[in-house]
UniProtKB/TrEMBL annotation:
CDD domains found in the cross-reference section: S4, TyrRS_core
Binding annotation for ATP: 231
Family: Belongs to the class-I aminoacyl-tRNA synthetase family. TyrS type 1 subfamily.
Short motif 'HIGH' region, span: 40-49
Location in or out of the cell: Cytoplasm
Domain Tyrosine--tRNA ligase SYY-like C-terminal: 327-404
Pfam families for this protein: SYY_C-terminal, tRNA-synt_1b
A Gene Ontology biological process term: tyrosyl-tRNA aminoacylation
EC number: 6.1.1.1
Subunit text: Homodimer.
Name the UniProt record assigns to this protein: Tyrosine--tRNA ligase
Amino acid sequence: MENVFDVLKERGFIAQATHEDEIRELLGKEKVVFYTGYDPTADSLHVGHFLQAVAMRHLQLAGHTPIVLIGGGTTMIGDPSGRTDMRQMITPETIKENGERFKAQLGRFIDFTADNAIMANNADWLMNLEYIPFLREIGMHFSVNRMLTAECFKSRMEKGLSFLEFNYMIMQAYDFLELNRRHGCVMQLGGDDQWSNIIAGTDLIRRKEGKQAYGMTFNLLTTSDGKKMGKTMAGAVWLDREKTTPYEFFQYWRNIEDASVEKCLALLTFLPMDEVRRLGALEGSEINHAKEVLAYEVTKLVHSKEDADAAMEAARALFTNNNASANAPTTEVELSRLESGIAILEVLKETGLVPSSSEARRLISQGGISVNDIKVESIDFNVTADMLNDGVLMIKKGKKTYHQVKAI
């Protein structure tokens, strides 16, 4: 059986590992208990979290035991990693509600039946800590000088790092120690921005327990120019269907840049790598087939086969409509304007689909305006660049009146 470390490496997951050769050997010969943590700072997971869940699923399929740690306690502090400002404080009630949503969403990818995985919440041990005993037992093992060199803190030094956030690394390291003591967890996984926090945990276990622990980080999901993927002009691409519909989710992956197709197929689907490389090598208009496969597979994983089928059908119907309405009027709009977002009322007037703002408001209130077959439900709707399909988006008034908007 192929070593899961090699699978993760071939598919492009692994960024850094504390002991690469030892981790590979361990994953090849023993059943390993490992964990990934999720701080419930929002009411849904997003596509960055999804990449971590796919990695956990690869490890679980190879016979290892995942611990999904919900950060009910650490969210009370806020992770400073990758941020230039302090996170907004969230109430305990909201954190609890968000955590329940995370559990439900992660259950789609991780098998929690028959002790195949463990769900934990660090609020169970962090919220009841006594400050002085904790400082004496745990705080004494952390060097402030060393902590200040960590990447997660360095980016905050100019604007100011609160003492509250400074504790985050210690809290996360303590999580690893607790999971090691409670469940025999020997490995922590996370995004590459968590490297400093992860090695702090392996070091704490070595100091307190005299045991070897391991850490491994995964590459963040980025575009070819280094920008984080999973963002649109409308906000994050969420896994919650109420926040990002299955069709919108499908369309996001259908419209990604050509250069990212092979990488996303490797990281976000379970297709064999031979097929991933074949699809990734397609060029010209044929790469659209690879994008369709990517969108279908990821939508099927996150939502369901039925949702993926429906989204595929809707996307193809839109393409057919686009072809059928090739003679429809076209309005050219500068791409920079679309990247900033253009109010739907303004677009409707520019295209000449409506004679006035009042008529536009009436049509929208009656459900008579669609953009790419998605009904516009508010006059606050913005038409944005991520809605473009090969440089064009389609606006429909009523059932038969089409108008193309072309980016230039």
